[in-house]
Design brief:
Length: 325
Amino acid sequence: MPQQINVGIIGCGAMGETHARCLAAIEHASIRAFCDADEQRAQALCATYHGGYATTDPERVLRDDTIDAVYICTHHDTHSTLCIRAAECHKHVMVEKPLALTLNECYAVGNAVEKHGITLMTGFKMRYYPAVARVKEYIPTPLVTTGQMLDGRWPDDFWANDPVKGGGNVLSQGCHTMDLVYYLNGSEPERIYAEGGNFTHQGLAIVDNIVATLRFKNGSVASIVQGDSGQTPFVSKFSFQVTDGRKTAHLRNRLKSVTFFDGEKPEEITDPEEYGFPEENRDFIRALLTTTAPPITHRDGLRATLLILKAFESLKTGLPQTISF
């Protein structure tokens, strides 16, 4: 069993810096390389966290035999290529969501992971919030779930709104919503129907708002709202509700607050801060140290992207889409 995991970070923007901060607090993790297209940004992060070197060349990191794992925190359209190259170089991978922007890319990543026997974890931090764990314990088998992630209007020139680099709000962030709704239900999805389209960015070839209905194999259903048509002030960007026919639970306030209701008396719990990033980083490093599978894999990344793309297909055809996973 390895005693230490040496890490390289590819992409030194906000996400790269967040993961570097988390890794610096993990005893058995050591950051050895920082890579970014902007050399100064890589050098700055390297100096802050005392990494071995900074570079603009991902291949230098991927071919470095002293590095065990890489973090891929780049623009979405580069995720699949970098994941596949990492697998070919026998590097374990933590990749920020979404796993990729197309199903073919997601499948290609999965094939590379299985062919080369590496560990890949998809960054779905929302599963790690304490309030989410409380909801799963309180209502382990929901009948109806509603999931909402609504932003204020994203700028047209924001990179994640670029049809190629980011895919727009629904594709970029909707994987988070789909994954958490799946996680709260604990059943595989089997059918999805969606309405929506481009409401606030007519100059961009993206879907920016959808409302979708999802049915799971265990018979439960979910309603999902995703987009940037305006953030609601009372529940914040995130609002997830689950019901089981008797009890209800409502996650809100960026998943820091949850209200439980048994039909007689509501109970509210609020956490002082957001969680997720430190916990997912610890799980990834622990999985590598113990040579066990991480709790979130490339299949979770595939499922989440599949659901969004099937919702897009439903928009085009006006018909429900079957989920084959």
